[in-house]
Amino acid sequence: MSWIPDxxxxxLVSLLAEKGPFDNLIEIxxxxxxxxxxxxxxxxxxxxxxxxxxxxEASPLLFQQLAHRYAQQPQVVCLxxxxxxxxxxxxxxxxxxxxxxxxxxxxxxxxxRVLTWLAQEEAAYGQHLQGISGVAHIRDTYQVRHxxxxxxxxxxxxxxxxxxxxxxxxxxxxxxxxxxKNYAPFLRLEQDPAYRLIALDxxxxxxxxxxxxxx
Length: 215
Fold this sequence. Notes:
Helix content: 40-55%
Number of helices: 8
CATH architecture: 3-Layer(aba) Sandwich
Oligomer: single chain
Number of domains: 1
Strand content: 15-25%
Number of strands: 7
Structural class: alpha/beta
Radius of gyration: 16 Å
Distance between the termini: 35 Å
Largest sheet: 7 strands, mixed
CATH superfamily: Vaccinia Virus protein VP39
């Protein structure tokens, strides 16, 4: 399975090489599995051949592609769920306030477009509800007490819920730290004495960061 050695993917491979051992990894928002998913699997093959990678992707179309891509990879468990249900989305007023008071990449798109994304994401969420919280399902079904690495790349308006679901993971990696998605989760972990920042690039992929639990 080929992977693209961009900055974030190289970080993931390096973490797997340097921060072992690894038993259980989770990626929230795997999409079709071509990007970070492939990098994680590459790193696992080299450094953690017995680890499992749990991939959550709630979009039916993307999940179909993801499941097909990794159908012959027993280390990869693909599941068609959101991290948690129910999800609470921000209000339009909260988004307007965020964009007025916080300098992020969203300002390039304008309030109207971002509010359109919010409406689309809420509508998609309503259509794809299954009554299953993906992270809790993984813990219960696969007897996962904690995750060694969690990658947060879910919906633009779900970052807070995604972090809550995997909080306590030994390593937490997130992108879009300069967008709404993981702006607040990044600040929370940056100020959390239980975690330390071990990697940061504020520009690549709208910003990414990695944190390691220290207590």
